[in-house]
Amino acid sequence: MPRLAYLGPEGTFTEEALRLLEPEAERLPCANVGAALAAARDGEADGAVVPLENSIEGAITTTLDEFAWGEPLLITAELLLPVRFSLLARPDTEIVHIKRVYTHPAAITQCRAFCARELPDAVVVAAPSTAAAAQEVSLPGSPYDAAIAARIAGEHYGLVELADDIGDRNDTVTRFVRVSRAGTLPEPTGSDRTSLVVFLADDHPGALLEMLTEFSVRGVNLTRIESRPTGNGIGRYFFHFDFEGHVADARVGEAISGLHRICDEVRFLGSYPRADGVAPQIKKGTADPEFAEAGDWLARIRAGRV
Ligand SMILES: O=C(O)C(=O)Cc1ccccc1
User: Which CATH superfamily is domain 86-164 in?
Assistant: First the structure.
């Protein structure tokens, strides 16, 4: 039974994702994404589950930066989870008396309209996770009057639900990933995604276009591109790419080998089954047998067999 670290404490959306991804796993709640990934790296856990992006705000940048700068880990699975937020408070709290609300930054951005409309005078403060916020609010003497978290977190920490489904949209989805230490890759399934981090060799006109061309000429469809600051001054960025296909696919292998040749560093983050099961559209000339046939043809002409 694997032991998986996750963004805790008990009652986070990440815990819900972990339970769906690996119902049998032993769960190790951690205080933040960095601690969960550290547990996976140092062997305290066999892997970790962390949030990566949501369909409204985009990337969870702490996770992206950990993947880019920390000891390498491999993404082995992903899960798309619709999340539903509740406003939770200690029993007897009235909504009009709420002046300080505590929750995870992703929940702050997804519940803005509710907070502006129903809690116009309240400040909303960033917490390490939604369940950490609920736990804190449950303490007598907490400086916070309410938390925004999953209903189950309210039940777990003895809070009452003052409002349910308070997200600005009810179709928001969060993408979570399971990571492991380097080792074996998941087998190709025909509906896979690959993730990479790419550092440019130098800054020059067309550098981004050159990277994109490596994907484009092999018919590899991107599903996410994100630039993140390198920290070495304004205007210095590196890139995260997610795209369709598995590193075992010829077109994917060729595209990332091309990036490896022209970029300073390419960090492979994993090839894993897509949660939505969508199969890639394969452009003419980019299927595995076509790459193999072209390779055979090249070998023949190099051997003088024209
Ligand atoms: O704080 C949590 O519960 C998390 O798992 C992170 C998060 C926060 C808000 C939406 C989705 C995930």
Answer: Periplasmic binding protein-like II (3.40.190.10)
